[in-house]
Amino acid sequence: MVDVILGLQWGDEGKGKIADFLTPQYHVVARFQGGPNAGHSLEFEGKKFVLNTIPSGIFRQDTLNLIGNGVVIDPVRLQQEIGRISDECPNYKERLLISKKAHLILPTHRILDAASEASKGVGKIGSTLRGIGPTYRDKVGRSGLRVGDILHSDFASIYRQATAAHLRLIEHYGYTDFDLKAEEIAFFEAVEFLKGHQLINSEYFINDCIAQGKKILAEGAQGSMLDIEFGTYPFVTSSTTLSGGVCSGLGIAPKHIGKVYGIFKAYCTRVGSGPFPTELFDQTGEDLRRIGHEYGATTGRERRCGWLDLVALKYACMLNGVDELIMMKGDVLNGMDNISAATAYQYEGAEHKQVPSNMVNTPVEPVYSQHKGWSKDIDLIKGYDAMDQEFRDYIEYIEQYIGHRISVISMGPEREKTLQR
Ligand code: GDP
Ligand code: IMO
Ligand code: MG
Questions:
Q1: What's the mean pLDDT in 134-159?
Q2: What structural domains and CATH numbers belong to the chain?
Q3: I want to staple 33 with a disulfide (CB 3.0 to 4.6 A). Which of 70, 102, 193, 379 is the partner?
Q4: What is the pLDDT of residues 64-82, one digit of tens each?
Q5: Measuring from atom 4 of ligand 1, which residue has the nearest CA?
């Protein structure tokens, strides 16, 4: 069976922490989409790690970790990432499997990402500049390179052919702010490094695991509101971030999908451009950023902050078929007098509970419910039933609105600051 955990908002919900927390229940943790645009933070034993491409099960000794075919891999970034974890996981190679069908992010994809963003001016997506969009564009355009290609004796000329087209496009953009020679040296070095890893036909591997009754956790990246189909298009990423993406991103049939865990923060954040109905531009927004340390794990950019958006959250739960909710960062709201949550949107002269098809052309005004805050020093030690009434009221209001139970509550970045109800 393949259970899924994924983000229900605009990313950075705390997927890394929860994947690591749940890992002991699974034999395999698998990433199925996205790439090094992701930054998943894990904290344990006083140490902190940020993973970009490697699944969050890597720090647990009994777990295999698969980078699936739906992921896009930058060999240079992956090599750096492995460098950051190899002291903690000296035997990581035995537990890290990489799909031969995963597409490669080439240096020219990164340059194209930068050139495309520069050409958009104020209308830019606010991409992480990791080359994600151009790599997925080549994948669906049937001109991408894949991990398996690096094993080809003529890889260098396959690479040259692919990048020649990119260079023509970069010239067309008039973009010159790059040093391709230096980037290519690092790329070919990283490709050699990558060859020393377990490059596999991962669709056979994962289906064999299923046949043997092994438990698999599919770890999403980004968030549902960044999904290419249903997110706030065009301010989205270039992959299917929803549970539906697990099947194509790993090569498994829908009947093998088990539980879907949806992760959300007790408030909302977004990094990059695009619609964000509940965004706060006042002191409360700044307080959320400061207390929640809302700065990008990958890019260090300031995250935009705002109240919880239940309209968008319910939409995401519907799209993913969420079974259970996981609420993160409740502690960031500790000690606040009042808390708001959007329960409807005002647009086209009426109140709606549906997300409009185009939030860019249809700006929405949130309608809020008001909630009394809880104490400053609330913690998990005594268990849920002993927690402040106001906190439990907030939790139960969300459960009622969404129609699903919040089964895990996180009140701090560390593994132990997690309550399973
Ligand atoms: P991901 O991309 O979904 O894995 O999330 P990120 O790692 O980008 O961002 C989540 C941030 O919140 C990280 O810095 C985590 O260490 C931190 N974090 C996770 N859970 C909690 C929590 O319950 N409370 C607080 N205060 N921080 C948390
Ligand atoms: P994790 O997995 C938050 C955002 C970017 C930008 C848009 C497109 O850590 O939650 P891209 O580089 O994918 O072309 O950027 O998506 N974005 C994320 N925001 N968390 C992420 O990943 C993100 N990955 C991409 O900021 O707005
Ligand atoms: Mg992140």
A1: 97
A2: 2-100+201-261 (3.40.440.10), 103-194 (1.10.300.10), 265-420 (3.90.170.10)
A3: 70
A4: 999 999 999 999 999 999 9
A5: 40
